[in-house]
Amino acid sequence: MAERNIGITLLGFGVVGGGVARLLTEQRELLAQRTGIRFDLRHVVVRSTQAASAKAEDAWAQRLPFTTDANAAIDDPAVGVVIELIGGTSTSAALIERALKAGKPVVTANKSLLAEKGPELFALARKHDTCIAFEASCGGGIPIIQALLRDLAGNRIDALLGIVNGTCNFILTKMTQNGWSYDQSLAEAQRLGFAEANPAMDVSGRDAAQKLSILASLAFGVRLTEKDIHIEGIDRLDAADIKFASELGYVIKLLAIAERGAGDRITLRVHPTLVHKTDVLADVSGSFNAISVYGHALGHALWYGRGAGRMPTASAVIADLVGIGLGSTQAVFKQIRILPDQTSPASVLPFAELESRYYLRVMAKDEPGVMAAIATTLGKHRVSISAILQHESEHSKLVPIVISTHLAKEGAVAKAITEIDALAVTQGPAMCLRMIEQPEEFGEAK
Amino acid sequence: MAERNIGITLLGFGVVGGGVARLLTEQRELLAQRTGIRFDLRHVVVRSTQAASAKAEDAWAQRLPFTTDANAAIDDPAVGVVIELIGGTSTSAALIERALKAGKPVVTANKSLLAEKGPELFALARKHDTCIAFEASCGGGIPIIQALLRDLAGNRIDALLGIVNGTCNFILTKMTQNGWSYDQSLAEAQRLGFAEANPAMDVSGRDAAQKLSILASLAFGVRLTEKDIHIEGIDRLDAADIKFASELGYVIKLLAIAERGAGDRITLRVHPTLVHKTDVLADVSGSFNAISVYGHALGHALWYGRGAGRMPTASAVIADLVGIGLGSTQAVFKQIRILPDQTSPASVLPFAELESRYYLRVMAKDEPGVMAAIATTLGKHRVSISAILQHESEHSKLVPIVISTHLAKEGAVAKAITEIDALAVTQGPAMCLRMIEQPEEFGEAK
User: Fold this and answer.
1) Residue A31: what pLDDT?
2) Distance (Å) from the C-alpha of residue A425 to the closest C-alpha of chain B?
3) In whole angstroms, what is the distance from residue A360 CA to residue B127 CA?
4) Does any domain span residue B404?
């Protein structure tokens, strides 16, 4: 059968870039056989060709067409697609803009850039009759972006939530399964390459929030920014909370949650969350990701897979390349109207109005009247207790009192905690975590 | 923005057909807003318009354009897409052929038809420069077909396995969670509409096998028929086996399994399978489906969702409609070369050569030497025992001896069982089930 060639410029030769180069080299015949397209890697743009060659241990990698001239590599008339995998938000933006202005489709895994400048870049692509593909920006190898763009089009989406940061999930899994501290678990994650030397973007929840802003903007057809999202990281978590949660029947996961609430207002949040042990998300371990979507017709669906890493993310980049090669990605990008350059800013529910169940851990003196004081304070703010966990005191003067609540308003709980922390018999700040039941399947999914 | 109209003929107004009509009616504005396309339901072909109107309880459904003239509805020049949801393999094939010959894209959920005549129909679509979309044929609302067609193109797929029959999964879940018998669980499934009056297609495993033939043909890029698949249903299962499996740490699921084995030969099977309780598939309950795919780059990924039912399946039909409206489905169908009209017959490993772990339940007399006789027979066939479960005998003269094995060859196990069944101290036939560990992630997924 007839074959076509598509020339490719790859910007960046880091972890994912190396994986993409490997797949394009090793799977060249397979891809041609499956798609009728020969994907020719014509330029691999790096900071230093010497350093890149030195890094390339394999023979195939040493033969890659390294160059430092990004502009020439993008402008090469034989290049039909540009893959941006250098990260950051300034150089990458300039190079992507250059490619788009030349009418060349861009594939990127750059969630920070899309979270910050997605609407402008999408609009620029549209103006030049081309497209941006970003399957690899969220959920690693999991093909969730295409699903949201196209396969769920007949659904009113009511919720999208999940585990979208493999670093945090690895750390929490270690804390849960091995009983390790946060610091010890982080060190292990760093040792194994699941966390960076500076893990702030991951453990603070910001990385998850950037992904949520992309995913939720497609799910709800609205424009979002990171600022719309309430963000709490995992770095304040104590091993004791993992243990108490387990006693209550829960595991703690960093969830990114977007829900359609009353009046179609959306709640957006990233925080450590108590997930019931019977919940599918509770079993998502290590560096895996999982994303649940609730559609009014589809019901509950979930995508699970490796959320990061060299080859899984490269797999998503290749998916985008193939989609561009076949023209299906352009067809969807150009016509579908849920990309954030074409939608309106979301109506976001103020975080204080969120309704949730809560897990509270209060460190209190082991003396009469303490529980009454805490319970009275919660009652005053109409926060209703669902379960209490208090073990016999050992040597310590302060004992942890763990309380789970029924549904309550975030604002009310925050006020109650402030008052509890101010009690003479407690030592603040109390630990406050949110609990989640997977949303009911709304509508008619049955 | 500019809008286009696409006229639709819907063949069939059963469970899924009704759901599609509902989505097209109620989500008309949403779909137009998202896609720029107005999907006009121009004909709903039924056997009797009176019966259809009588069945239609809602006002919107009574106003549907019912007709009994399928040919005219397909030929209508204002109709651009034909949706086939009447099932069966003769009338449906003739109508699909008529639509394809007119160059009209066809959307179908008809797995039986595709399993039987997929290659011919795909070839016919290709000849007339149009396409067949069949997202709804496997996994209900789960968008797995598009993922296999396009998003995993850069992967060598090593295994695809999962729970693809909601009826069986519902029955097994009831047997597991409630301790019910097979008959009682089946009756409950029928009462709730999860099983048909004649449940043979589902409980025999044939429905799952038809879906596996479609999924595996795409995953491995080969042509398959139902005959390539070893099929065992759930109708022989005993509540005791569910209980013993649980004691060993497993749950029993009807799995459809396709694996690439030695020499790239493929094993294809549908049978009740012991899945470890820590496995993600063990938590897939009720009528939900889940499909695991192992790609050499992607690693392990899993799709989960409602595998059947009115609205989830309708959601998948709408996904195909939208894909056709946007042109992305045609782009993929026409160029991607893994559809079974363009691939070669699979090289299938003879089932006797399968390697698996096994669960055996032998009913034996409670007397000395029994275990020795069984163990000796297994040893003779090089089947190595991994665990034994035998409880103290109660009143019964026969006691169940439960044995799990290490990896062994199917053929050897079958011979051993024949000999064990022939022992004077046992009463055959022994129950033999296969156990599965989720495949290792091959290659470089990390």
Assistant:
1) 96
2) 43
3) 65
4) yes
- B443 pLDDT above the threshold of 80: no
Same domain for B161 and B287, yes or no, is yes
- Interchain CB distance below 8 Å, A278 and B278: no
Q: Is B183's pLDDT higher than 60?
A: yes
Q: How much of chain B, in percent, has pLDDT values that exceed 70? A: 97
Would you mind telling me the total number of residues written for chain B in this entry? 446
Which helix (H) or strand (E) is A166 found in, with range? Answer: helix A166-178
Please report whether residue A348 resides in a domain: no
- Report, as an integer, the average pLDDT of A200-227: 96
Cα Rg, chain A, nearest whole Å? 24
Residue B104 sits in the same domain as residue B32: yes
Per-window interface: B 34-93 vs A, CB < 8 A: 34-37
Cβ contacts of B1 on chain A, cutoff 8 Å: 337
- Token digits of residue B207: 């429905």
C-alpha distance from residue B397 to each of B367, B373, B428 (Å): 10, 18, 14
Contact B205, B233 (CB under 8 A): yes
User: What CATH code is carried by the domain that includes residue B220?
Assistant: 3.30.360.10
Torsion of CA A63, A68, A70, A71, to 10 degrees: -120
Mean pLDDT of all residues in A346-351: 94
- Count of domains forming chain A: 3
- For the stretch A395-443, pLDDT in tens is 678 999 999 999 999 999 999 999 999 999 999 899 999 999 766 554 3
CA-based nearest distance B117→chain A, Å: 22
Facing residue for B305 by CB, picked from A1, A141, A299? A299
B186 and B287 together in one domain: yes
pTM of the model: 0.95
Asked, for residue A345, whether it belongs to a domain, the answer is no
Q: Do A134 and A150 sit in the same domain of this protein?
A: no
Rg (CA), chain B: 24
Both B208 and B245 in a single domain?
A: yes
Q: What is the CATH number of the domain that holds B80?
A: 3.40.50.720
Nearest-CA distance from B336 to chain A in Å? 5
Question: Are the Cβ atoms of B298 and A306 closer than 8 angstroms?
Answer: yes
DSSP calls for A367-422: STTHHHHHHHHHHHTTPPEEEEE-PPP-S-SEEEEEEEESSEEHHHHHHHHHHHHH
Contact B253, B169 (CB under 8 A): yes
Range of the domain at A375: 354-436
Averaged confidence pLDDT in chain B: 94
- The whole-angstrom separation of Cα B177 and Cα B169 is 12
Size of interface A-B (CB pairs under 8 A): 235
